[in-house]
User: What shape does this take?
Amino acid sequence: MNSTARRTAALALTAVLVLAGCGKSSSKQAAATPTPSGVKTVRAGLNDPKDQNIAVLQFLPAATTVAVGEKLEWKFTGPEPHTVTFFPPGQNPPSPDKADPLFAPTPATGPYDGSTMVNSGLLPFGAPAAPFELSFAKAGAYTYHCVIHPQMVGTVNVVAAGGATDTAAAITTRGDTELAGFLTEGRAAKAQLVGAAPKQVKASDGSTTWTVEMGTSTPHTDVLAFGQLPDIKRGDKVTFVNNSTAPHTASFGGSKVPTNPTDPNATKAIPGKSPQALNASDFINTGLVPPNAPPGAGPPEAVRSFTFSVPNAGSYSYVCVFHVTSGMGGVIKAA
Ligand SMILES: [Cu+2]
Assistant: This one.
């Protein structure tokens, strides 16, 4: 048996065991829910199934009610990664740019009582992620966070065993209802981003400086796509500007671009700070272009911008190293 077959067999076995352990009431519930085992599942964000550029940055649903001792799981569909992180009283999430130490998991050692930190780690991260599971030792309201997306805050309301809880199906249905609104919001923002003609400024030498937007954000989504850029002329310039609330890069060089966003070269301006000239062969990187975050109160636009001159005709492909898995990339075509 290869490892995939072994894993599939193990999963099937788990499903059988879970079903067997669920008791009488579960058979009716199982028929009504998309999760055959009846496991109560919260979705930790997800990308629009119709457009992977749109990342929904919310727990779906935001609030869930379970009983003491009952298992709840969080599913990481991605590709945009998230964390499920519970902090003890008095400890707040770090700012997203200081969250790296929390990319590694801190699993629970037993039913969670709220007195410690438990953390899924950043998932998915280079491979499909297993769900994060947790049960609770005592009744109460437990708040949790995604440490890289400050707008992602969820609540688990834990009631005494035997109290009224959400069914698995109710959790899914409520998540779907919330999701529908967020998708509408994200799709409208994407249409606006890619539909807008880019700002262009003509210089006295006849060249043009074009502005390319690095993504855009709404209260519940990130649009992980670059703004539109028509074909330009050699001698023109392109200024990338980040008006979104997520960090981005524009990284040129194809296979030379680091694939791991925690690679130090991913976040560094290479070969140096703005402005730089593009060429067809080197790894050339804006490095991390900071977001306009908190929304509208980020650093000045000059700090959130990076300009390239394009001295030669050609086709220059680029990606955002943080969001390449969500399809964030583009091309500068100069004639
Ligand atoms: Cu990005």
User: Anything to note?
Assistant: The longest strand covers residues 149-159. The CA atoms of residues 57 and 149 lie 7 Å apart. The chain has four helices and 19 strands.
